[in-house]
Amino acid sequence: MKLFLDTANLQEIKQAAAWGVIDGVTTNPTLVAKEGGDFPSRLAQICEFIKGPVSAEVLATDTSGMIAEARTLAAIAPQVVIKIPMTAAGLQAVTALKEEGIRCNVTLIFSFNQALLAAKAGASYISPFLGRLDDLGHDGVQLVSNICEVFRHYNFATEVIAASIRHPLHVLQVAQAGAHIATLPFSVLEKMFNHPLTEQGIERFLADWQKVR
Ligand code: E4P
Description:
By secondary structure, the protein is of the alpha/beta class. The protein is 54% helix and 17% strand. It has 11 helices and 8 strands. The protein binds erythose-4-phosphate (E4P). Erythose-4-phosphate is lined by residues 6, 26, 28, 107, 127, 129, 131-132, 163-164, 183.
């Protein structure tokens, strides 16, 4: 299973890369706006640290606008993957971009049928947002599980990125569901390191060592 970091913050990306635990990065307009500055330069900086896929989202909502933005973003680095929203215009852009060899991550997936259509259009990745479904009282993990089951059944090449992850338990649940990738906020990644028995164990070992010195 691959882990991506869901952020546009360079310090977080550098730290997670130094830990050696992340395989790629996803961004979205909200995350990019939070950091400020010029997005193409930030994307180029992110790609200096991350050699795996780095998702960058288009802002246009029409097919030709999305394709134009996608070409500009994809020219920044070979690992850039274009995030395209799950709309009819978006899937048309995905189909055209695939012909040009530009990989797309279809985002804002909230149903199995949306996932199926995105895969059929040739998305390299799809991003079901499980946390936002949970927020509405739906079962986001079940959606990821349904998508993964059917994609396995038909040997689809599209990889499933479990997105909108809220806590470490989500990581276990989407791994069990068979998601290829989980994209995590930095705060969730940090929590994954922690276990009180690890902390206590270190303290006890050090205390015992001091007793005989
Ligand atoms: C995924 O690619 C999105 O950037 C992200 O996971 C959205 O998560 P949110 O619901 O916490 O905004």
